[in-house]
């Protein structure tokens, strides 16, 4: 009865949590392990750490991730950081829709996946990505010492003097046994979890729908099963440390010391595992793909609105309706259409420029990686994404804000000359230098970045920059309403450049002295006149 009640509670919990955010902490050092060491040379693009920082990728991941296992969590993190050359969205959509419409089966699969919910599961990747510990040069004496212990025990009833040999060998074996402990502890988590992974994968492969992921999976499962007995020792070791009493542990420890079983089993298992790396990763990816598809199904079920994007080959074209930022509660939705030109945004601080730039970047990333956009409609082409939004001084390397920005944009210019189209996201270009050079350099750089099939989304406070680029860029702006001593933002994207300036007015309503406000107004008029002459 208790088991049945527990099963009902688990079923209810999984049903209620579907479509909702996770209520747990995120250890990104462990989540990123698979991505950081994976060979992604065949990817269309690997998202850089800079771009991920600029779009708040960690916070985005915590919203997108609805996986049930640590394997799935590592797998979908990698999926979101890699834009593939040839996505398999048709195959994935079949699984996503199947999970959405088959609740009971989904819950059953989720329960299986939760068997891989331990933090030790994160370390499975080390078994096929990391170099294994190699035995020392003197390791050849270990089998001999183990055999000496066995022979001494067998001959002891016939020759009491063998006890002295047994004691001598035992002392040496004890030293080797405890020397090996630090090696053993590195694998006490990963190897037992590999056994769990293999079992879960075997159970999941019984579902006919999952065979489209990898029809050859049984071969990989069999390869791992061949060393199951060797690996079972590590599972027993982990259990003894956690569950069984001190007396039983002491007996087992004594036996393992006498025959130095731990180094024999450890290095024997590692030698076998080293030849089975591809099979282990194959099983890892199979389980990760299933969990990732459930995660996407859960994400979509929890959204008020989403769409699967239309990916086309039309150059320099992006169209979105009702586009919104998934991290902003009650986010104002906007429409955008880019056809042959890039986008330049003007507007005051806090009006929504940078958030909109991030919104576009996020939608392209999720559209090209998990076939999901936060919009009622979204059309895009496959392109690489680069950004320079959140730049700061590098004090440790004695680099100023401006110099850091110069290097970041230099890298963008180089990427813009490659064959693949790019989307460049920039916020307040060259704000670390003076006005004249900022506008001059900004115009030249933005013209270069927008050449070819590249698209640029850039924000600026410099109205003059908008005037210089009006033939190459579509101009849009965000604005606010200042009245009755209040500032209200509507966060709606509007065509054209910003015409109304409210910065000085905002100073006034915030109680700045009259003489400061009046002088600022007078100087702004003079600067406008100079600007007009300069443009002529």
Q: How would you describe this structure to a colleague?
A:
The chain has 536 residues and is α/β, with parallel strands linked by helices. Among the domains are: 305-499, 3-Layer(aba) Sandwich (Rossmann fold); 504-535. It is 54% helix and 12% strand. It is built from 24 helices and 14 strands. The strands form 4 sheets. Strands 8-9-10-6-11-14 form a 6-stranded mixed beta sheet, with helices on both faces. Strands 3-7-4-5 form a 4-stranded mixed beta sheet, with helices on one face. The protein has a two-stranded antiparallel ribbon with strand order 1-2. Helix 21 links the parallel strand 9 and strand 10 (455-460). The longest helix is centred in the middle third of the chain and has 26 residues, at 277-302. The chain is elongated. The termini are far apart. The mean pLDDT is 88.
